[in-house]
Amino acid sequence: MISYHQQTLGSPNPLARFAHHSRLARARHLLATRTGVRRVLDYGCGSGEFLACLSGSAGLEAIGYEPFMQECAADGLPIHSSLEAVTALAPFDVITVLETVEHLSDEEMLALLRQADGLLAPGGSLLFSAPIEIGPALLLNHLNRARRQRRWSGSLPIGQLLAASILGIPPPRAMDIKTSHQGFDFRQAIRFLQDHFGPVLLAGYSPLPLGTWYGNSQVFFWLQRDPQRQLSSC
Fold first, then answer.
1. What is the pLDDT of residues 118-138, one digit of tens each?
2. For a 10 Å CB count at each end of the chain, is N or C smaller?
3. What pLDDT was estimated at residue 172?
4. Whole-prediction pTM value?
């Protein structure tokens, strides 16, 4: 079994390590340059890598919510598996949702938004990062996953892979979105969140200093609550 750390910050692939280190550094920078952020909830924090990255940040209190993963990036991280425990510690100025939305159905994303609505302080916002599963980075990611699994993970036909990598045309979603990013389109996710919650502010891409998603592997954006908008119930 390959640990989460071995797939991310501890990957034997230097490009994968660079991408994940860049993602955490970019998210930390975005928080640091946001005015008035004192309390942060990392929603779906995984092993707590981002919490460990934030440790020692002056004037910042950060906790994590992770109901599934048992692996921990460091001892003593304030990670809670119960939403009730997190709710008792609310409100939060920012909720970070890093590399999570790609694994959520529409119904699960609406549930996340309803939960965020009750956890955010007035004027609070969400900071998202999401993988870019189109463009040249997809081809590199696909090759890295195949190497890691020691087989071609060829659920994606070569024609669809090239169309996504070169033309930005996403393939169909995977049958199991909990274990696969296949077919995730960050542009569609942004539209969905904006339609159901409030305005989106694009915050940039990583790991390359390009002003476009093409060639990058992660996108960052802020989501602000629109108090005039009613959240859907389904």
1. 999 999 999 999 999 999 988
2. N
3. 92
4. 0.89
Helix 106-119 × helix 186-196 angle, to 10°:
50
Kindly state whether residue 141 falls inside one of the protein's structural domains.
no
What are the structure tokens assigned to 200, written together?
Answer: 């989106």
- Residue 163: inside a domain: no
**CA distance linking residue 95 with residue 126, whole number of Å:** 5
The pLDDT-based confidence of 27 (bands split at 50, 70, 90) is very high
The separation between the first and the last C-alpha atoms of the chain, rounded to the nearest angstrom, is: 36
The neighbouring-strand residues paired with 63 are 41
Contacts of 76 (CB under 8 A, 6+ apart): none
Dihedrals phi, psi of 151, to nearest 5 degrees: -165, 160
Closest alpha carbon to 166 in 217, 215, 206: 215
If one counts the domains in the chain, the total is 1
Instruction: For residue 190, give its domain range.
Output: 4-134+183-224
Q: Find the helix packing angle between 136-149 and 14-32, rounded to 10°.
A: 120
Query: In this structure, which amino acid lies at residue 209?
Result: P
What CATH number is attached to the domain comprising 188? Answer: 3.40.50.150
